[in-house]
Design goal:
This protein is an all-alpha fold. It has one domain (60-293): MetI-like fold (Orthogonal Bundle). 73% of the residues lie in helices and 0% in strands. The protein contains 15 helices and no strands. It starts with 6 loop residues before the first helix and ends with a helix. The chain crosses the membrane at residues 12-39, 76-100, 112-132, 161-182, 225-247, 267-289. Keywords: Cell membrane, Membrane, Transmembrane, Transmembrane helix, Transport. Belongs to the binding-protein-dependent transport system permease family.
């Protein structure tokens, strides 16, 4: 194997090691903080007060609280719903449909659609949260332009339909990633293969389902891996729009972690929540990595 490598690299391995040094340092820092979070999950460490300096080891007590007290399981279910409808159904499906519909076209419509998609992705989370809060408020744009002209009483969407509003806002915010990835993936599909399927009598839906989707299968798994992880741990837009409310309707695990660790100061319990999130995300990642393997 060494004989097949570049001769210059084999004689200058220190250059290769020097180039890898930033990546090694980054991995080391990530492992360092992960180890601290794992260690603190077995303590009663607090943000303020006596327990902030005189903390004690409590064993598995924090992990028992995850499943014996209200909060964690409810937030986990809210997160599952948010991830499924926002990332898997929303961003992934919508991104693919837009990429398939606009593939090969060079029109003003495509430019307008791409600008709208990219605008949501490029806007800061706080700005996007303010726009959606203002749009869905009782005196917002939707009520002023649609609800009131129909003679209906105004609806406070952000209060009455908090989770659907946050889900739609995140779809608008994150679809650009899926669209760009699927656009590049579909452009890599040979036109000869698609044309051959067309000649064989395949309908447009059959060409997509039986020809294009199997070819871009690794890209689909890659997209699902990234958007699932990002959405599962997503925090800024939700917290800025609702703070986890009203009540606990939009309290995802990321918001629950923040509330326990910083609003209530339970750093030990918050560390246990972060470890649980790490395990869940790790299991989901393994599922998607198996999807990346070529079928035998």
């Amino acid at each position: 194997m060494k004989n097949q490598a570049n001769p210059w690299l084999t004689s200058n391995l220190w250059v290769l090691g020097l180039g890898m040094l930033p990546a090694i340092l980054l991995i080391g820092v990530l492992l360092y903080f992960t180890a601290w979070a794992f260690a603190f999950s077995f303590t009663d460490l607090a943000l303020v007060g006596r327990k902030s300096v005189e903390w004690e080891w409590v064993g598995l007590e924090n992990f028992q609280r995850l499943f014996t007290r209200r909060g964690f399981l409810e937030s986990l279910w809210t997160t599952v719903i948010f991830v499924f409808f926002s990332a898997i159904v929303g961003q992934s499906v919508l991104g693919f449909l837009l990429a398939a519909a606009l593939r090969g076209t060079r029109s003003t419509l495509r430019s307008v659609v791409e600008v709208c998609i990219m605008l949501g992705w490029l806007l800061p989370d706080i700005v996007a949260a303010f726009l959606w809060s203002a749009t869905t408020a009782q005196t917002g744009l939707i009520n002023q332009l649609i609800i009131r002209p129909l003679g209906l009483p105004p609806v406070n969407f952000i209060n009455d339909y908090a989770l659907p509003v946050v889900t739609i806002a995140n779809i608008w915010k994150g679809t650009a990633w899926s669209y760009l990835l699927f656009s590049a993936a579909l452009d890599s599909v040979s036109r000869e293969v698609v044309e051959a399927a067309k000649v064989d009598g395949a309908t447009p839906m059959q060409r997509i389902w039986l020809v294009q989707l199997p070819i871009i299968r690794p890209h689909i798994a890659t997209n699902m891996l990234f958007i699932t992880i990002w959405t599962f741990t997503y925090f800024p837009l939700i917290f800025a729009m609702t703070g986890g409310g009203p009540g606990r309707q939009t309290e995802t695990l990321a918001v629950f972690l923040y509330n326990q660790s910083f609003a209530r100061g339970n750093l030990g319990f918050g560390s246990a929540i972060s470890v649980a999130m790490l395990v869940i995300v790790g299991c989901l990642s393994l599922v998607y990595l198996r999807m990346l393997r070529e079928p035998k």
